[in-house]
Design goal:
Elements: H1 2-20, H2 25-42, H3 48-57, H4 59-77, H5 80-89, H6 96-113, H7 116-134, H8 139-152, H9 161-170, H10 174-199, H11 221-239, H12 241-244, H13 248-262, H14 267-272, H15 276-295, H16 297-309, H17 315-328, H18 333-351, H19 355-368, H20 378-389, H21 396-403, H22 405-423
């Protein structure tokens, strides 16, 4: 019992450090991994070899994340995503409502293929440049764009780290992931755009027709065409993964390698811009969760939870959405996802619930819950930072009061969608 208490205290310490943001999350996770190995080795339940085994067990997911990061970074440098974005907003006339809708739709599309940090940086920079040209205050739009990055992060398997983790852990193919999440993403996008447009009052037309040349984002057309071809081939292989039987990680690494060879970019330059902190965080947190499993902490928690849910087992699906959503409002959604995976597996086996639906409910909550607070998502932190430079500060209370309605509606719609998944 002593080891359970010790490991519970370690896990609590890690979550508190992640919540307070006192140190970088990768450093916190590495500290947690070292503590787990040290105490696990001392008590004879978790050795360095055990830690290596847990990391190796999740190697496919880790390789998939690394490959996707390199691929998207190289694709972004080709101007492909900027070209798509400028093509969407060119020649939209003088309607500010139509302009807003297109910008938010563009945000969702970018977030489906880029991590939400990169997507927010691109769409935010584009919005600020258009703000100067149109002589409008687009501060509110930047906030909505941050919210919409998390909607787009739900769309595809490659759209967010939690998606990649769940897909790798439960063996969900690219096409299966898309078939399940795209309908919900479209629903959330349409409803959210409607809410944003409805909030717009005293709207004046744009002073000029917005005519933009999409090719202005492309520096080298030859590299642009190469990037477009590689991107198309990778997407096709992802979709046909169940048919061609090639690992998702191998496809991502192959696409990344092709881009590094054909893009003309210095590989070291691309590698420097990869978020290696997330990789170290991911590997270290797998070690932490491995220790929690071996010590019996997660099993004990899952047993207590299953006893409560045994009264009405179906509640587990909705509870999973709202627990992961609420936790993601304060703590990074990556550790939330990794922590919940062994718990939902236990709940599925002990209560006879659909493991697939539990996995989807976890994906929905982890992606959408970050919009509840101004610290719940990296894209929101970036957006509020952009506004701070303009002299606009948004407090915690103000954020929840003005924008908390969006994640609440998102999770409610996701809960209803989960019912359909159970029935179907």
């Amino acid at each position: 019992m002593a080891i359970v208490i010790i490991f519970s205290l370690i896990f609590t310490l890690i979550l508190l450090l992640l919540f307070t943001g006192s140190y970088h999350r990768s450093v916190v996770a590495m500290l947690g991994a070292l503590l787990v190995i040290a105490f696990g080795w001392e008590y004879g339940i978790f050795s360095p070899q055990s830690a290596a085994d847990y990391v190796f067990k999740n190697a496919e997911t880790i390789v998939l994340v690394i490959g996707s990061m390199i691929l998207c970074e190289a694709l972004g440098r080709s101007g492909l995503f900027q070209f798509i974005g400028l093509s969407l907003i060119s020649n939209i006339g003088k309607s500010i409502r139509w302009f807003t809708a297109i910008m938010l739709l563009l945000t969702v599309i970018l977030s489906a293929f880029l991590n939400n940090i990169t997507a927010m940086l691109i769409i935010g920079a584009l919005t600020l440049s258009l703000e100067k040209r149109l002589e409008l205050d687009l501060s509110e739009l930047i906030i909505y764009e941050a919210i919409f990055t998390n909607i787009g992060g739900l769309m595809l398997m490659i759209s967010s780290i939690p998606n990649l983790i769940v897909a790798g852990e439960f063996g969900i193919g690219f096409s299966s992931f898309a078939a399940t999440c795209i309908p919900l993403t479209l629903l959330l996008t349409v409803v959210s755009i409607y809410l944003v447009i409805k909030r717009m009052k005293n709207v004046t037309p744009l002073k000029e027709d917005l005519e933009i040349n999409p090719w202005s984002a492309v520096k080298d057309k030859r590299i642009f065409y190469r990037a477009s071809l590689i991107f198309t081939l990778v997407m096709i292989l992802f979709v046909l993964n169940d048919v061609v039987h090639i690992g998702l990680g191998l496809i991502a690494i192959a696409g990344a390698t092709a881009m590094l060879i054909l893009s003309g970019e210095e590989p070291e330059s691309v590698f420097r811009d990869i978020d290696w902190g997330t990789i170290f965080f991911l590997v270290s947190f797998y070690v932490i969760i491995g220790g929690m499993e071996q010590s019996g902490v997660l099993t004990l928690f899952a047993q207590d939870l299953s006893m409560i849910l045994a009264i009405i087992p179906a509640i587990a699906y909705f509870l999973n959405i709202w627990i992961s959503g609420a936790a993601s409002a304060f703590i990074d959604n990556i550790p939330i996802t990794i922590t919940l995976i062994p718990i939902v597996k236990y709940l599925s086996s002990s209560l006879g619930l659909s493991l697939g639906v539990l996995a989807w409910s976890m994906v929905f909550g982890a992606n959408l819950g970050g919009n509840f607070t101004p610290i719940g998502s990296p894209s929101i932190i970036i957006a509020t930072g952009m506004l701070k430079k303009k002299g606009m500060n948004i407090g915690f209370h103000e954020w929840i009061k003005k924008y908390g309605i969006f994640p609440a509606i998102h999770l409610l719609l996701a809960s209803i969608y989960t019912v359909l998944l159970v029935v179907i």
